[in-house]
């Protein structure tokens, strides 16, 4: 540990017993509404929660209200799609002002690109023998601008082409496969500036999942840090024990706080349920200590 742990005195507080700062609702590509997620988090013993839908804040109000009604501490959240070295990377924003107009309008534009990509995906899938995928996928979403590869995958399972969502990704929806459409999302710089302008903390999501070589991965961490990014997800849905060790060590090398989030999407599809993750390694400085220091949590010590 290079620096003393700020907020350390508060870390034994019950609010921090089981923190889950990454999941999805029907507002993006999850299958449950924010109210059901709040209940699920609460009954799993989650004490501090954030809903982090892809590129949208439309579930925030409902999530916050439902959490409040259950006595569950809540932080605003979002997961922003960016492009970095030709790979799609995700940046989670936490504890920002969810009414910030600049952030909202930038996310609106990002979702417009999502909708255009969905149309192209549908055309590609039609050529690969899967007709009507746009309307099929839309049956799983509230709004064409939220359409995700996950909605297409559910439709392709529904019509009996492939047996499960994970196999659809392998067969159709990953780079080089017939339904994959390369897309340029926001830049790292943009995502961080939107989050910071809205008063939030930026977290590099699930670094173990990207197809980056070691030089590119170092550059991602360096650029993220240089642009004011403050935390990295160390414990998350599909990180192996090796990933947890590696990114705990990188967090300390780069002076980043650590986050913990299940990335829960659906009872049928997710790697791990809300609140069921292992704890952060003891060497990590939890991002909730930072959020508490900033006064975002309103905790009285
Ligand atoms: P999109 O943002 O529309 O490109 O979709 C990305 C989403 O698809 C991720 O957030 C996951 O929810 C889901 N996803 C990506 N890869 C896989 C995979 N191999 N298996 C299942 N779901 C995946
Ligand atoms: Mn997703
Ligand atoms: Mn993600
Ligand atoms: Mn996610």
Question: What keyword list fits this structure?
Answer:
binds adenosine monophosphate; 10 helices; 301 residues; 8 strands; 5-stranded mixed β-sheet; globular; disordered N terminus; binds manganese (II) ion; alpha/beta
Explained architecture:
The structure is a single chain. With 301 residues, the protein is of the alpha/beta class. Helix content is 39%, strand content 13%. It has 10 helices and 8 strands. Strand 2 (48-50), helix 2 (60-70) and strand 3 (73-75) form a beta-alpha-beta unit. The longest helix has 27 residues, at 101-127. It is globular. One manganese (II) ion (MN) binds at residues 79, 90, 205-206.
**How big is the Rg?**
19 Å
Q: Could you give the count of β-strands? A: 8
The overall pLDDT, averaged over residues, is: 95
End-to-end separation in angstroms reads: 24 Å
Distinct small molecules: adenosine monophosphate, manganese (II) ion
Overall spatial form: globular
Structure annotation, total helices: 10
| Helix content class | 25-40%
| Category by helix and strand content | alpha/beta
Write the H/E string, N to C: EHEHEEEHHHHHEHEHEH
| Major sheet: arrangement of strands | 4-5-6-7-8
Low-confidence stretches: 1-7
Beta-strand content estimate = 5-15%
Report on the biggest sheet: 5 strands, mixed
What can be said about this structure in brief?
The protein is of the alpha/beta class and 301 residues long. It has helices at residues 34-43, 60-70, 101-127, 133-138, 149-158, 165-173, 188-197, 214-226, 241-254, 287-293; strands at 19-20, 48-50, 73-75, 77-84, 87-94, 201-204, 231-236, 257-261.
């Amino acid at each position: 540990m290079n620096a003393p742990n700020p907020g350390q005195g508060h870390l034994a507080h019950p609010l921090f017993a089981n923190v889950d700062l990454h999941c999805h609702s029907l507002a993006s590509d999850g299958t449950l509404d924010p109210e059901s997620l709040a209940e699920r988090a609460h009954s799993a013993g989650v004490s501090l929660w954030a809903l982090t839908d892809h590129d949208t804040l439309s579930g925030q109000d409902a999530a916050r209200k439902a959490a409040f009604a259950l006595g569950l501490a809540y932080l605003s959240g979002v997961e922003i799609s960016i492009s970095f070295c030709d790979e799609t990377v995700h940046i989670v924003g936490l504890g920002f002002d969810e009414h910030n107009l600049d952030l909202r309008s930038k996310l609106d534009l990002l979702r417009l690109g999502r909708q255009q990509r969905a149309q192209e995906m549908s055309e590609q899938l039609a050529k690969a023998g899967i007709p009507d995928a746009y309307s099929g996928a839309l049956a799983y979403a509230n709004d064409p601008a939220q359409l995700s590869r996950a909605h297409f995958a559910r439709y392709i399972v529904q019509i009996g082409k492939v047996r499960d969502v994970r196999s659809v990704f392998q067969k159709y929806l990953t780079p080089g496969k017939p339904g994959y459409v390369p897309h340029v999302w926001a830049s790292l710089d943009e995502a961080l500036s939107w989050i910071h302008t809205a008063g939030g903390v930026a977290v590099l999501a699930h670094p173990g999942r990207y197809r980056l070589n070691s030089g590119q991965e170092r550059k991602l961490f360096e650029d993220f840090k240089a642009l004011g990014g403050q935390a990295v997800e160390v414990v998350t849905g599909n990180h192996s024990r090796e990933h947890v060790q590696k990114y705990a060590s990188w967090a300390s090398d780069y002076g980043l706080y650590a986050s913990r989030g299940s990335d829960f999407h659906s009872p049928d599809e997710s790697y791990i349920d809300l609140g069921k993750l292992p704890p952060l390694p003891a060497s990590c400085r939890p991002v909730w200590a930072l959020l508490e220091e900033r006064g975002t949590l309103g905790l009285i010590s």
